[in-house]
């Protein structure tokens, strides 16, 4: 079993063993980093990072992660690249592959990332598309593992928009045997193909998937409560209509009471306080949102090292 040379586009493509291989390695790299022990596994290697959307956590965690691994990272804004002026993705893939050892991309269309990966001869990492956010979901479930000690049989409840975040959470929960209940307004349900993919994985792992439109019912006995913005990047024009549609799809104190007493509250960030989550809950004792943000660094370092190291 080796991830070397592979792409990282979706958790759906990973085996359960590969997920735990990444988690185990992330734990080791996190300990080394905390102890100040050098771990230059990617010495002399370069990561090209293409961004067609804004980012704080993803950009900084990948860039700092490459430095900590002894390599370097290039921030490539699509506004400044020829890809932003219409150069084909397949040409960009082959050109960059002649310069760098790995490509990370954040963009709109998931198909574009698949095309990039098809033509690139170096590993491609999906750092968010409209469909998926696999690096975030890996960091989140690694965080849940740290807090809960085990994943199988635990329940994650996602409240809000059926977006890239819940799609990747469905993939990973189904793989690792966590139950997942999702509450979205009826018109904003998760992608049907993704739900089917998760259902297949859930059969193997014993995980239970429930898709509802009632937040309180979904939150019953949850070990993890998760939410994300009502309007993702690219949907800013729908903000007003979404505010109406999502009223009530909020992690607040009432919802917290429905979950287990020791539930942990997660959000991939950036958060909109007063919309999908209240100030008191995100700042309260159940919230682990900054642990999740930190773990982006450690989990992505593990992914990059496993994909790109000699
Ligand atoms: N969670 C996340 O991906 O954050 P950024 O958009 O800041 O990268
Ligand atoms: N669903 C959000 C996640 C941001 C990290 C978005 O796509 O904008």
UniProtKB/TrEMBL annotation:
Residues in Aspartate/ornithine carbamoyltransferase carbamoyl-P binding domain copies: 6-145
Pathway: Amino-acid biosynthesis; L-arginine biosynthesis; L-arginine from L-ornithine and carbamoyl phosphate: step 1/3
Localization annotation: Cytoplasm
PROSITE patterns: CARBAMOYLTRANSFERASE (PS00097)
Xref: InterPro entries: Asp/Orn_carbamoyltranf_P-bd (IPR006132), Asp/Orn_carbamoylTrfase (IPR006130), Asp/Orn_carbamoylTrfase_sf (IPR036901), Asp_carbamoyltransf_Asp/Orn-bd (IPR006131), Orn/put_carbamltrans (IPR002292), OTCase_ArgI (IPR024904)
Keywords (A to Z) from UniProt: Cytoplasm, Transferase
Residue ranges occupied by any Aspartate/ornithine carbamoyltransferase Asp/Orn-binding domain in the UniProt entry: 152-307
Any one GO biological process: citrulline biosynthetic process
Residues involved in L-ornithine binding: 164, 228, 232-233
Enzyme class: transferase
Catalysed reactions, as listed in the record: carbamoyl phosphate + L-ornithine = L-citrulline + phosphate + H(+)
Gene Ontology MF, one: ornithine carbamoyltransferase activity
Binding site for carbamoyl phosphate: 55-58, 82, 106, 133-136, 268-269, 296
E.C. no: 2.1.3.3
A cellular component term, taken from the record's GO annotations: cytoplasm
Entry keyword annotation includes Zinc-finger: no
Pfam families reported in the protein's UniProt record: OTCace, OTCace_N
Transmembrane segments: none
Domain of life: Bacteria
Known function: Reversibly catalyzes the transfer of the carbamoyl group from carbamoyl phosphate (CP) to the N(epsilon) atom of ornithine (ORN) to produce L-citrulline.
Family, per entry: Belongs to the aspartate/ornithine carbamoyltransferase superfamily. OTCase family.
Protein name: Ornithine carbamoyltransferase
Source species of the chain: Sporomusa termitida
Gene that encodes it: argF_1
